[in-house]
Design goal:
This protein is an alpha/beta fold. The chain has 9 helices and 21 strands. About 50% of the residues are buried. Keywords: Oxidoreductase, Thiamine biosynthesis.
């Protein structure tokens, strides 16, 4: 067995998506000697994400713990960005808010359910008619029924975020090992080139996490999602100035603008194992829905079609905490990996230092899943 040593506590982080990179950066900044294992960091689902930081827009009755965790993490984002800009680069946040639009009567009824729920739990969101919706976002289709204005939900450029995190990790001395991990055990990471000993192991490998530890086998699964990137032409309308989410014939859609004139359109969602190929049907579905909501995108250049695998837990709440053998897990963030990055990183650093995780993160303790499985 090879022992990877430097000054301070030795921490292995398995997984180089937004969660793994955030954990590695924060742990190194806290004084730990961190090694990150991933054959291709800053890729996967994080690379093809929309970049929405939207706990309210993602809310739904019965998922109060998910809402509270998202809001706690969103409150940490301003500091996260300031410190990341110092250590790495500015990830570029869009603070203009979010609108959610409904296409047909059934979609409008679904949006009204969400609006009513948000009123009951005291969250900031305003139901608007189609005229007000188009006034807020010129270029939206006149056929949309109603909208929901969510001023507090934000967005970030996911690819600039990942590059900034890589630079911040380098700045803080994180060591990268570009290889697949085959299994993790307490204080041990096993790869094709050998076994490596650490004081702590953090498992943050996204959709692959369930393959690396026996306790997570039935608790985390991959959910495939396709996204498109479109670029406005000189003769077309520019992308919307803020995040536009929509429900089109009961299918969710989002259009997230970028500062370079691109817009990210997403996302399909279905069970496909670990298949990351782009299906023609998924592309057609996204283009059709996007054109209905924001007709000008039909004139845009299609610059990219990609697919990624979200890591989904059994109850949509991530798994953040220690497993029964002491391995720390940070996975199962579903559609909210970017949103949850600050609170997850802070929770993991607290666990490394034998402190209590942030309040809302305690509900994400994987012990809850073990209890449910034993019932």
């Amino acid at each position: 067995m090879t022992t990877d040593t430097r000054n301070g506590a030795r921490v292995a982080v398995v997984g180089g998506g937004v969660i793994g990179l955030s954990v590695a950066w924060r742990a190194a900044a806290a004084g730990h000697a961190v090694t990150l294992f991933d054959p291709k960091p800053a890729a996967g689902a994080s690379w093809v994400a929309g970049g929405m930081l939207a706990p309210v827009a993602e809310a739904w009755p019965g998922e109060e713990a998910v809402l509270e965790l998202g809001e706690e993490s969103l409150a940490r984002w301003p500091r996260f960005v300031r410190e990341l800009t110092t250590d790495g680069a500015d990830p570029v946040m869009n603070t203009a808010g979010t609108v959610i639009a409904a296409w047909d009567p059934g979609d409008a009824a679904q949006l009204e359910v969400l609006a009513g729920y948000l009123r009951r739990v005291g969250r900031g969101a305003e139901l608007v008619d189609r005229r007000q919706l188009r006034k807020r976002v010129p270029g939206l289709s006149s056929r949309l029924r109603i909208g929901l204005w969510v001023p507090g939900d934000l967005a970030v450029d996911n690819r600039k975020l990942l590059r900034a995190l890589q630079r911040a990790c380098d700045h803080r001395g994180v060591r990268f090992r570009h290889e697949w991990v085959e299994a993790v055990e307490p204080a041990t990471v096993r790869t094709g080139s050998g076994e490596f000993a650490y004081d702590e192991v953090v498992l943050a490998a996204g959709a692959r996490t369930g393959m690396l530890h026996r306790e997570l086998k039935d608790l985390v699964r991959p959910l495939k999602g396709e996204i498109l990137r479109l670029r406005a032409r000189r003769t077309s309308l520019p992308p919307p100035p803020l995040t536009v989410r929509a429900v089109v014939e009961n299918r969710p859609l989002y259009l997230v603008p970028r500062t370079d004139g691109e817009v990210v359109v997403g996302a399909t969602q279905y069970e496909a194992g670990f298949d990351e190929t782009v299906a023609a049907g998924g592309v057609r579905e996204l283009l059709d829905a996007a054109e209905r909501v924001y007709p000008s995108v039909a004139e845009y250049e299609l610059t990219e079609a990609a697919a990624g695998l979200r890591s989904a837990s059994t109850d949509n709440l991530p798994l953040i905490g220690r497993l029964s053998d002491g391995v720390i897990v940070a996975t199962g963030h579903y559609r909210n990996g970017l949103l949850h990055a600050p609170v997850t990183a802070d929770a993991v650093v607290a666990l490394l230092e034998d402190d209590e995780p942030p309040g809302a993160a305690r509900a994400a303790d994987p012990a809850r899943a073990r209890k449910e499985a034993s019932v």
